[in-house]
Amino acid sequence: MENYSTMKTYIIGSGYLSSELKRKLSNSFIYNARDFLDVVDEINKTSFDTKVNLIINSFYSVKKLNKIDSYNFFFKKSIIEISSILDKIDSKIINKIIYTSSSSVYGSIDNKIKLDDPNNRYIYSSLKLTSETLFKNYCNKYNISLDICRIFNIYGNKDNFSIISKLISKKINKRIKINNNGSSIRDFIHIDD
Question: What is the pLDDT of residue 52?
């Protein structure tokens, strides 16, 4: 059995969640996807005696969804970079992969995809679901443990973008529109959880 305290964990992706994971996990290293691709050959060479964990938190930023200027760039950031990582990394050195997906995939699963998608939410959720399938296929092929975390509404610590942080700090100076007459239910997860 692998010793998790000495096993290296590579966090691939930038942003709030990645930096918080890095802070919490000992013996962890954080890279954006492009930089990880630059060092993966060296990781393959130096990891022959112990396996590594991968946390894949790399995807097109949800904050930029309403302004996609290049679908090529959108696809590159959403699925091309992670598929390139899977092509380059030696599967024999991987102990486990954790993929940070999104609860938005439930819109894709329920076949509620509409043609009118002004905020690009459905294309985002479709690519998240496609990425999940990519990781399932890869991990099944190489007998690698996989956890898919469908994260929804992260808040806490030093975040400044969640609705909870905005309500707590009173950064909202106008009325908040409540959809569905207030009957909508939202899940939230604290960054420490």
Answer: 95
